[in-house]
């Protein structure tokens, strides 16, 4: 069990950055928290505070416009199997989601968490790379909130490493709408599902 001393659930980006500043460097940004649960150790040696972004509306947006779809960081993996807009516009993510753990985990795990942890076994990274996805991040700059756009291929820097700097948070990801395109996703693991991937590929 994750045993944070303090738990916050901000309702806006402005409140999020106030909490980040107040808690200095001792916090985790979470939405689903499935990767943190998988890494849990006893005794708990995590940060003092958890800042849960799952209630921030701007992080949950799903919007199609001008041939692209923007998917909020809070989007749950299960949504790729249930929401018609996601099924129609990015079918390769539906294929990836169908292999993603089990439904209980898919109902909790998020797009943002899958990207932020930069795990080699992250199921969404190969299909998003194949679609030349762009990651949108935000940070506080004086009194303004600024957004940056970085190609996913540049965002991932290595195993567990991303281009996120201190105080920067993933808000969403954008990729082309590929309705009616052929696609494929292949997961290699000890079992077909309910297991961590050894390697993934997407086309």
Blueprint (SSEs and pairs):
Blueprint: E1 6-8, H1 13-22, E2 27-30, H2 34-38, E3 49-52, E4 62-65, E5 68-72, H3 79-82, H4 84-89, H5 91-98, H6 103-106, H7 111-116, H8 125-130, E6 134-141, E7 144-151, H9 152-155, E8 156-158, E9 161-162, E10 169-176, E11 185-189, E12 197-202
Parallel strand pairs: 1-3, 2-3
Antiparallel strand pairs: 4-5, 5-10, 6-7, 6-10, 8-9, 11-12
Largest sheet: 5 strands, antiparallel
- Written as H for each helix and E for each strand, in order along the chain, the element string is EHEHEEEHHHHHHEEHEEEEE
Level of helix content? 25-40%
In whole angstroms, how far apart are the ends? 37 Å
Main structural class: alpha+beta
Number of separate strands: 12
CA-based gyration radius = 17 Å
Q: What's the gist of this structure?
A:
With about 200 residues, the protein is of the alpha+beta class.
Feature tags:
203 residues, 5-stranded antiparallel β-sheet, 3-stranded parallel β-sheet, 9 helices
Describe the structure.
Strand 2, helix 2 (34-38) and strand 3 (49-52) form a beta-alpha-beta unit. The protein is of the alpha+beta class. The strands form 4 sheets. A 5-stranded antiparallel beta sheet has the order 4-5-10-6-7. The protein has helices at residues 13-22, 34-38, 79-82, 84-89, 91-98, 103-106, 111-116, 125-130, 152-155; strands at 6-8, 27-30, 49-52, 62-65, 68-72, 134-141, 144-151, 156-158, 161-162, 169-176, 185-189, 197-202. The mean pLDDT is 91. The radius of gyration is 17 Å and the shape is globular. The longest helix has 10 residues, at 13-22.
